[in-house]
Amino acid sequence: MSYLELENLTRHFVRREGWPIPRKTLVRAVDGVSLQIEKGEILGLVGESGCGKSTLSRLIMQLLVPTSGSVVLEGERLADLAPAEIRKRRRDFQMIFQDPYASLNPRMTVFSTLAEAILTRRPELARDRSALESAVAALMGRVGLDPRYIRKYPHEFSGGQRQRIAIARALGPEPKLILADEPVSALDVSIQSQILNLLLQLRDELGLTMIFISHDLSVVRYIADRIAVMDEGKIVEVGESDALFNSPQSEVTRTLLKAIPKIRYPATAPA
Amino acid sequence: MPLLEVRDLRTSFHTRDGIVRAVDGISFDVEAGQTVGIVGESGSGKSVCCYSLLQLIPQPPGRIEGGTAKFGDLDLLQLSEARMRKVRGKRISLIFQDPMTSLNPYLRISTQLIEPLLIHEGLSKSEALARAIAELEAVGIPDPKSRIHSYPHEFSGGMRQRVMIAMALITRPEILIADEPTTALDVTIQRQVLDLIKTRQDDLGTAVIFITHDLAVVSEVCDYVNVMYAGRFVERAPVETLFARPRHAYTRALQRSIPAMQKKGEILYTIPGLPPNLANGVPGCAFAPRCEAHEGGPSHAATRPALVELESTHWVQDCPGCLAGAVATN
Predict the structure, then answer these.
(1) How do residues B222-265 score in pLDDT, each as one tens digit?
(2) Tell me, what's the ipTM?
(3) B132: part of which helix (H) or strand (E)?
(4) Does residue B236 lie within any of the structural domains?
(5) Which residue of B has its CA nearest to A262?
(6) B247 and B220: one domain?
(7) What residues make up the domain containing B186?
(8) Interatomic CA distance for residues B313 and A72, integer angstroms
(9) What's the pTM value of the predicted model, to 2 decimals?
């Protein structure tokens, strides 16, 4: 039994177009996706925009109700749980979003953002200010932020630091699963490496299971153990990341590989 | 005689924290039809540099402190607003990173696309519309005759960027400034947009100033590359030379930090530290605090190092510390 299992997960949307009598078309955003993810594994999910990556991530996060199929976490079928129970379970899966400028509340300090996240798991800390503060500081240290910045607001940080705050917030509720939706594509290339290093380090330290969504295969190849390629709501190819990179089986994968900008000149810089 | 000749451009921002010298004396040339890259991290001043050329810096707090930008017989930095308007969007156009925020969501594509033609070329609406449709077709928008009357939100991100390119090139400018035109796009769409800029450039003979932080993109599109750090160029070279024989420590560090270049399982190389805070002024070599010091190697320059021409067309900041450890010339 895998840690997280997606069984034939499907979500359709009905699109209404036209006036006065709307024409209905069925959009198969996610169309029968089955995947298994082991504990401590990083699964890369790649595909072009509009292929259903984000809908799939929302289904896993229980933010959308599937049309059919189910999400099974540690042998428990999440769709069978009561809504209140799902709210409690949501602590177990956390998300990191693409744009750290948009995903942090500009009117909350680092402390209040992270304290809120920590309190969902450990509400008893609400009465113990100093313990809460040291928990926040520890969390900041974990993601490589100086705890001196605890009273600062998001706008006072650079893009890479903001993404670290977003990662710390995701770690606050001690989740079992982290869904990272394009966590580095809004960042400078030189900052991307720092965030990727951090995610890998956290996986090793905390045994996190992670789904890493991206359109950039070169980044995914580096971070993921296995890669799933999505196209038009279906998984077209799953494989060990190096194998998939070196011998792509499907046309979609080949297109994605071809699109990666490559340094055309052999670098002779000393290693 | 180059098409555009920028000499010693200086732009600073007067803020509460002090004077931020965002662009601190840079010089470069753009030849007709050439693609010139400006690469650097966020905050290195690459966008400010190009916006200065078109007088798009909000003044105050910004101020162009000095320098010249010879474009034909004009000096772009000295032009009056009225004369600048005749250049901006006509002889030099600009495309931005985010096509959603740079198109007006309230206006149809047609209205926005024919505007430069009505203003700069005095065409009638129907003539302009015909030109606009042809231009949309040239950038690969299917069914341009009906699509031209759509609103921006009816296009996908990649299509919007195509519309932006059509809008920028519709007046047949001599220079196109592309400010991170593909950063917000998917890899596959990025590929299409890069190819499109290239083909349109070949068709029209436009020179392109390409601003990006992505060295891989630079290696694919640029002829000549300027590497910018803390408001100055630290290295300038033709693209082959820059990748084959990078001399400055910053250029080498940037090349090493590309995730795709590294083996799986190794810790990714990152440049330690942060770019300097320009508000405080930088006394010596700006990269010194982040340069991985070679023990016993030469020390970094104590005053800001000057650009020197190492070999023909290959310029580098003359800081002994930063040049140490580079592969010798040729």
Answers:
(1) 999 999 988 889 999 999 888 888 888 888 888 888 776 667 77
(2) 0.76
(3) helix B125-138
(4) no
(5) B216
(6) no
(7) 4-229
(8) 61
(9) 0.82
